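Last lecture ended with a question: if I hand you only a sequence, what can you say about the shape of the protein? Today we answer it with a concrete record. The protein is dTDP-glucose 4,6-dehydratase. Below, first the input exactly as provided, then the predicted structure, then a couple of comments.
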Amino acid sequence: MSLAAPLDLQSLAGQRILISGAAGFLGGALARRLATLPGTRIVALVRNAARARSRLADIAPAVEFLEWDLNRIAVPDLGGPVDQVIHAAAQASPRFYGSDPVGTLMPNAVGTAALLQAAQAAGAKGFVFVSSSEVYGTVSSETALAETDGGRVDCASLRACYAESKRLGETLCVAWHQQHGLPTYIVRPFHTYGPGLTAEDGRVFADFAFAVARGMPLVMTSDGSARRAFCYADDAVEGLLTVLLKGQPATPYNLANPQAELSVRELAELLVSIGQDLGLPTRLEQRPPPGGYLPSPFNRLVPDIGRLQALGWQPQIGAREGFTRFIEHIRRSEA
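The predicted structure:
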């Protein structure tokens, strides 16, 4: 578990819980966690129901599939009352920011407004918005980021399609809570990894893990100095559910594992070491950066998680253990 005291999820048992992006990485992890509760029904709001059924086949009996595209300027019919809505649908990788900026920003902006309206109409008791550390913009890298910190985002830049839409999504949640009384909860994940990430994700930690699992070289296209805090999926799920059950509405919470802070080079060296422990033939290679990738403005992106820790949450899985689990999962799934 990832808590100083175990999180009691029994209050969610028997509920009908809608998760947007349930076929994705974090949404899928949440669906699997909540599907363990007796009588709980998961409503998977997804763009492609057939693909989602395949990805969630292990929990299919507990899942209703609702096909909907959050790029649409329309409000979905949730098929009856819902108890909770968790909005986790997003294109989080910079790989998509340049090629599909509209498809990146719409689910965070228009999609959030649509789901808030649908949740209110369906009598939801809570609404969780999965935001992002990108909302901080360009800030000092010398100190840990608190939820009250903030920096500049160039709204006329292409990469802003993600950060600005996440910012708007948070503001929509605050406004909806104030005006309509819907309890809205805001979670800001930093760098989260684990089973459910795909080889096409495009972020460096996913690229590295898949390379090791496949016995291929780890390709680093930067100087490796950027520093990030890496949080394993199980810890992230428990943190998000902690906010839903114990958090203050309309209040953002950083979600990360600062104890697992590594530079990109340190991460690469760690994964090469894990690969060697697993008997996999991998090595680190340096190459020029590819075209089309929009780099982050942050050199160090590590948060203060005191606000979430005060609710009783504590990350438990370190980088070596977490990435070992992830690599072993990839190997099993591709065997």
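Comments.
1. Residues 160-180 form the longest helix (21 residues).
2. The CA atoms of residues 199 and 210 lie 6 Å apart.
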